[in-house]
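Predict both folds.
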Amino acid sequence: MAGSASTSGRSMPVRRLIQRLTGNLFSLMITLLGLLAFTFTLSHLSPVDPVLQLVGDHATASTYAQVRHQLGLDHSLPVQFWHYLQQLAQGHLGVSQSTGQPVVDDLLRTFPATFELATCALILGASCGIGLALVSVWHPKSWIDHIARVISLLGYSVPVFWIGLLGLLVFYAGLHWSAGPGQLDDLYVYTLEPKTGLVIIDSWLSGDRGMFINALQHLWLPVVILGLLSMASITRLLRAALLEENSKEYVTLARAKGASRWRIAWHHLLPNTRGTLITVVMLSYVSLLEGAVLTESVFAWPGLGRYLTNALFASDIPAILGATLVIGSCFIIINALTDALVWLTDPRTR
């Protein structure tokens, strides 16, 4: 009886976690469906005629009607959306009107570049943001604390495209510290064999040291700019949580017993703010994956953001919906993972 009760007690948290994740995933899937419906409707309100983009202004009426029928644009908007959902259920996202390639192939080609850029920016932003928040808490109202506040303010206030253009002007055109737009120079673009889709890893695996250094020279500036935005949000929110935790009595007691700052931070502050830390870092990652559009446009980075920008200008509905689906799916997966990690690592949430 005791063993049965113990087993039942251990299985309860797992069952509750599964139920929580199922409920969250269901609500997020409904949100994604609404996002697709809104994007689909908004795309059809564009004044650009996708049929004329394909056939040209001098096409005959019969040619125009035939292409319109092939694209399914002769049906009502709800019917078109239903046909799109049917294709989506079969794994087909349509053909891009801009590139002439299946949208799935375009997404598989462009998403790794965005993933590489966002992941490197998150590593930089989280490392600097957590360290800056800790130092700011150790020295409240000091010059370090003021610097943390200024960085947070600048990261939230200054437009990313302006920082990108300024960075190119200073570090590329002026100091020549950056290799400029793109992922690689033209010398290496056509010689790189894509294996993982991540230029840093592929250039390293190629064994060409010059190609690897060139990839780093192209990567560091957009990573620093996006990392600044990530660091601003992480520093601001984590600093507030650490200041609140640092004012509690158990921290004063640990300090009175002679515990060092690193011991207090590692064994008391960070464990008791890990829920906030996980949430802030993961949401920052979502914002980097979603918000790299302007950065990729400024740096001609061949990622998902630039692909979506070009699709919006061309009124390429299949490409727009495919990119929206990927971004929404990333949001769903990362939110569900964040909720699970917080629930598992912080007993107070249970």
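Second protein follows, with its predicted structure tokens after the sequence.
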Amino acid sequence: MGSFWAAFLVGGLICVVGQLLIDGTNMTPAHALSLLVVAGAVLDGLGLYEPLIQFAGAGATVPITSFGNALVHGALMEAKKHGLIGVLSGIFEITSAGISAAIIFGFLTAVIFKPKG
């Protein structure tokens, strides 16, 4: 279980990397986010993201890199149980709650506040 300082430092470092990618290169924010998702996926595939979560707690589970981690983690877990079809079902199973929450809260925000455009 990570401390508040570990969460702050790791989460902040992930955000700094994202900001440096946007400010220091000609990457768009979408490109930087995609790269961070892929980085989280690669780290999970190499078995390095779970120890990071154990060390930093929310500092590793809240940033966008955690989405890549969740995709690979779910795919690998279900692939062990169900083979190739488990890869797809695992991706959807483990990420569906977060995606559903984003859609619902985005809709509610649009209903409550007047969207521009």
